[in-house]
Amino acid sequence: MRKKIGDKNKAVRGYDFDKGVNYSDLMRSFSSVGFQAGHFARAVEIVNEMIEKKAKIFLSYTSNMVTSGLRDVVKYLVKNKKVDVLSTTAGGVEEDIMKCFGDFVVGDFKYSAGKLYDKGFNAAGNIYVHDDLYLKFESFVNPILEELYKEQKEKGKIITPSELIWKLGEKVDDRTSICYWAWKNKIPIYCSALTDGALGTMIYIFQHKKKDFVIDIVDDTKRLNDSTTGLKKSGVVCLGGGLPKHSVLIAQIFRDGADYAVYINTGISEDGSDSGAPTREAITWGKLKMNSKSVKVFGDATILFPLLVAESFAKK
After folding, report:
1. Strand pairing partners for 264?
2. How many CB atoms sit inside 10 A of residue 35's CB?
3. What is the pLDDT of residues 280-299, one digit of tens each?
4. Which are the contacts of 259, defined by CB distance < 8 A and separation ≥ 6?
5. Which of 14, 30, 88, 154 is deepest in the core (most CB within 10 A)?
6. Which tens digits make up the pLDDT trace of 103-136?
7. Distance of alpha carbon 127 from alpha carbon 129, whole angstroms
8. CA–CA distance, 158 with 148 (Å, rounded to integer)
9. φ, ψ for residue 235 (rounded to 5)?
């Protein structure tokens, strides 16, 4: 005879629309729906506990998050000091700045590559970015590199990637920008992949002219790793995978693992990548504590993250 399931298990129930539409109740109902709805509900609980316990919150996000409208969600969090440390790629920096000079536009996944190319558009999924924005970004960045090089020569000051990102935020002076608010609120944005993307190409070309120009990425690695030591509570929220996710998780090793973790991505563990790794894998590396509260939500962050913010950061 089968054993009865304990009282701790919930019966599977969905939202009852006969009661009308109440979005908070709808979100709460996810905890008993099953599948990824249940994981989403758990993510909301964990983030709210991070906030309640005053954990230092590390947010990582891949560049496509900034390509999309999630840029505005991340900007809200930084503007209102809801997170403490950011980790992203070069695309996550440059596209934030580029949007200060003009709009990206929503298109279609089934575009004609030839037609887009002829019109000067670059495709990122169903989002189109015009070449003109890259030219404006280049015109914006080059004088800043010149200024930093002059400072390096005159004062011996070698800049780090996070300091360069703050400088971009300061100079762009645009309140729609993540980088602007990160500079304003002194929230570091770490970018271990600064030489990737358009920004990396500009630095590469600039160094052809100024061969002794240096950016110190090692000092930023030290700052990120040092920022976890001695914390009472530490939590990570990772949108997508890749280097941004791995950087903040590696940093948690120096305090014997984070206390909380929420992943939102579509990576699979079967290919052995860190991007697709479940939270239990991070425990084996000491990136999360053995008794940490963690969950991975398998899904599209452009849908899930605004809902998560609405049920956590935006309510506090």
Report:
1. 239, 297
2. 10
3. 999 999 999 999 999 999 99
4. 53, 55, 233, 234, 235, 289, 292, 293
5. 88
6. 999 999 999 999 999 999 999 999 999 999 999 9
7. 7
8. 8
9. -135, 145
> Is residue 147 domain-resident?
yes
Cβ count within 10 A of residue 85: 24
- Residue 293: what are its φ and ψ, rounded to 5°? -100, 115
Q: How far is CA 11 from CA 32, 37, 44, 116, in A?
A: 7, 14, 20, 51
The CATH number covering residue 124 comes to 3.40.910.10
In 3D space, the residue among 80, 74, 124, 89 whose CA is nearest the CA of residue 237 turns out to be: 74
Q: Which of 151, 171, 163, 178 is nearest to 220 (CA)?
A: 163
Has residue 40 been placed in a domain?
no
Which residue, 75, 129, 79, 121, is CA-closest to 102? Answer: 129
Which DSSP letter does residue 240 get?
Answer: S
26: in domain: no
Nearest to 202 by CA among 213, 191, 192: 213
Number of other residues whose CB lies within 10 A of the CB of residue 296: 24
Segment 171-202, tens digit of pLDDT: 999 999 999 999 999 999 999 989 988 999 99
Tell which residue, 36, 113, 51, has the closest CA to residue 83: 51
255 lies in some domain: yes
Compute the radius of gyration of the chain from its Cα atoms.
Answer: 21
Q: Which residues contact 243 (CB under 8 A, 6 or more apart)?
A: 89, 192, 193
Residues 6+ apart with CB under 8 A from 280: none
Task: Judge whether 159 and 216 are in contact, CB under 8 Å.
Answer: yes
Positions marked catalytic? 287
First to last CA, the chain: 48
Helix (H, G, I), strand (E, B) or coil at 129: strand
Number of compact structural domains in the chain: 1
Give the range of the structural domain holding residue 260, as residue numbers without chain letter: 54-315
